[in-house]
Amino acid sequence: MNKQTITEELTDSILPFWIKLKDEQYGGLYGTVAFDLAINREGDKGGIATARHLWAFSSAYRVLGNPVYLTMATHLFRFLKEQCIDKAHRGLYWMLDYKGVCVDDRKHIYAQAFAIYGLSEYYRVTKDEEAIQLALDLYDLIETKGFDEKNQAYKEAFNRTWEEVPNEMLSENGVTADITMNTHIHILEAYTNLYKAYPFAELRARLLHVLSLHLTKMYQEDHFLGVFFNKDWERLLDLQSFGHDIEASWLIDEALKVLDIEADEYHAMVIAIAENILGVAVEADGSLVNERENGRIDRTRIWWVQAEAVVGFYNAYEKTGNVAFKEAAEGAWSYIIHTVKDKRERGEWYWAIDPDGVPVERDLVEPWKVSYHNTRCCLELIERMS
């Protein structure tokens, strides 16, 4: 694992795959590519997916400077602002059809966070005032509609007119959660990037609050983060999500760096999470297994979990100098290149590899499988190795 090979994977494989999906007629990117690599030009286009693509190409341009990436980012920005944002009631739609017509007008705080993430990154490279004003409007929505003063947590799901509804979109495993770790880590991620782009005192205070929730409410004695909670911050399941934990470890650390905070309790949490995942979730082949529920481990190797393992373990290595973390990052990257990477012509990364080492026959592109995790993995390593 070195800067050159990582750069080549990004510029020769990952980004070209997504560039070929540019929809010149209706905007955004084509929403579905089947396992056999057939492009469905009539697949739905997610609001979250569009925001993630916007972040990926904006960030790729910021780091690598290729004007093709800026052209893609601008294309995605136009689709997001013109089709994905509700002009009557504000906020990012959940899902659109291939023509950019809304087919699911629910609003989710998780989705608004990703729109902030993409818009703030686009602003970092363009200084487009419209982009930052959209990001700030979404920030205002999260804080005014999405924050629960009683439990000091962020809410989850709403209908189009911002009436709270059950959290169907980000609940699973048989529960409907009032509070999720997933939404909170991505608010943290979004606010961190917004602070990089456009810092102001209130945002700093809110970012500090989100950090405190990770430490005081989600972080458990066993060094895992709780996944699903009720309104009283009580855990709903005995569930550990290994990929989310290692991702959260470096996102928490990134927020601390951006805020220029030296806090022993947070740094201890970051390292303890990484050590814990290293001990319980890494297989002999370098891969990271998915999750554990009620003591039973799901050994599926999901593409984004491997990507986050590379960054999370490398971040822990930078913080500690512990070569075990460096070896874990290198092992995860090796597993990606040898097993997760789709070596067929026009391929990218498989969605997942089953416990027997066989690619799962699932769409290679759909609203949850986009350019964000693996692009970010590469860009983080490129910047950290510079």
TrEMBL record:
One of its GO terms (molecular function) is cellobiose epimerase activity. It catalyses: D-cellobiose = beta-D-glucosyl-(1->4)-D-mannopyranose. Its EC number is 5.1.3.11. It is an enzyme of class 5 (isomerase). Belongs to the N-acylglucosamine 2-epimerase family. Belongs to the cellobiose 2-epimerase family. PANTHER family: N-ACYLGLUCOSAMINE-2-EPIMERASE (PTHR15108). This is Cellobiose 2-epimerase. It comes from Streptohalobacillus salinus.
